Amino acid sequence: KKSTLIIDKHFIVGEIDHRIYGSFIEHLGRAVYEGIYQPESPFADEQGMRKDVVELIRKLNVPIVRYPGGNFVSGYHWEDGVGPKNERPEKLDLAWSVIETNQFGLNEFMDWTKKANTSAMMAVNLGTRGIEDAKNIVEYCNIQGGSYYSDMRKKHGYEQPHDIKLWCLGNEMDGHWQMGHKTAVEYGRLAAEAGRIMKMVDPSIELVACGSSALDMPTFGSWEDTVLSECYDQVDYLSLHQYYGNRDNNTPEFLANTVAMDRFIQSVISICDAVKAKKRKNKTIQLSFDEWNVWYHSNNQDKKLERWCKVPHQLEDVYNFEDALLVAGMMITMLRHADRVKVACLAQLVNVIAPIMTSDTGAWMQTIFYPFELISNHGRGTVLNTIVKAPVYESKQGDAPYLDSVCVVNEEEETLTIFAVNKDLEDSMELTCDLRQFKDYQVKEHIVLTHSDLKAVNTEENPNNVVPVKGDNAKIEGGILQAILCDKSFHMIKLG
Ligand code: AHR
Questions:
Q1: Nearest C-alpha to atom 7 of ligand 1 is from which residue?
Q2: Nearest one of 162, 154, 80, 153 to 114, comparing CA atoms
Q3: What CA–CA distance (Å, rounded) separates 384 from 434?
Q4: Which of 43, 62, 411, 475 supports an S-S bond with 52, CB 3.0-4.6 Å?
């Protein structure tokens, strides 16, 4: 098959906000305990943080990490996780039916962000709690001192404020499974008042309101409209969440989910802008896609879990090669909307639906680690409006292109990077792109992620089964790029 990318260096989508490469750590399963924190591990540092995990996270180059949930946050009392560890209560976590020991909390997380070279995106509990507690946590984190909660932080050994800039106003409040689930009007009002009081404490913070938990939520659309109508002035971002699965073992349909994701993003943009128009505002609401990934492999296993245990193996999806292709496609889809998707979080980061897995004997990289690593490290700069002329196939989502692709220009480095997924399971794709505006550019690097088996996985015993390799068939002649993208493959082609 043949495809063409059409670009013009003056025709841009927008600058990439580096926070589009964010991720997520929830108090859930083995994400915190045995994931990022395991004092008894030989890999732990003096604070109990796993150094091997930090090293892998640094490779992913993740600028923000959302914390502490997820569903967990909707019943969480942040005060339980600060102060002397021997005084912290053990509590029921009703979101995941486990016991939370609170041995890791807000201050440990903030210490960990520095080690992992990242920053916090902090969520407040708007499920079982309200505006008073939302106010207090901002005071604890961001006020220098001289007030009850800021002095409490100092007493806990943190002289300087954490200065957390990005805050989520609850989590998935449209979901019936959420503790303190609300109607759109109830949540919109609460988000407005919580947001207003949080910004009274620290006007420099930015706030994310909950959008829908997925595109197929029955309230999708009207939820966004109503919520924003209530809290437009107080918030800066509206969230989107979406997970995909291949439950019918239909890979073409599974990979066509990038079409659904694109539609989801476009729809939310439309609703944000409709509310803007209705309210005659200058301010534009941006998008925070703060939970996205593949999630389905572990669903059956998780149904068998005993209630009220500690640190169970929960949501431990073992990702295969086709999952990595979709993850690449999802990232490409978000980049194509870089003008509006400013924040995004791969959900999650360690052990729980994660690119990084741990055991007592080590840490390893799942298949989805690699597209994230390649795009996060090489996808910095400005997105070019990339017209993809490629053959399509029929899917439940409508016509799905065989090729997902986007081009990113980095003016500082003087590079142009192409990310591309060939979704064709049998045929290679000949890719052509006219680069005459990019005088004298040559292929600097071509990395390919492919495998003959769509279901191939990486495990602790066999961690290098699915890994990227060097590509050797991309060339520029007379200003025209030509590359052969083998069947079922992801490519990072850097030119400069
Ligand atoms: O990431 C796992 C869960 O998925 C989160 O806790 C919740 O927000 C979503 O439903």
A1: 70
A2: 162
A3: 14
A4: 43
Q: pLDDT tens digit string along 475-489?
A: 999 999 999 999 999
Ranges of each domain in the chain: 17-378, 387-495
Given a contact cutoff of 8 angstroms between Cβ atoms, the answer to whether 403 and 468 are in contact is no
Domain with residues 387-495, CATH architecture: Sandwich (2.60)
**pLDDT, position 21:** 98
Please name the residue whose Cα sits nearest to atom 1 of ligand 1. Answer: 347
H or E stretch including 364?
strand 362-365
Residue 382 CA to ligand 1 center (angstroms) comes to 30
Ordered alpha helix ranges (H), 170-250: 184-201, 222-231
Report how far ligand 1's centroid is from the alpha carbon of 29 (Å).
Answer: 12
- Report the pLDDT value the prediction gives residue 75, as an integer from 0 to 100: 98
Ligand 1 centroid–CA 70 distance in Å is 5
CATH superfamily of 17-378: Glycosidases (3.20.20.80)
Our answer on whether the CB atom of 171 is closer than 6 Å to any ligand 1 atom is yes
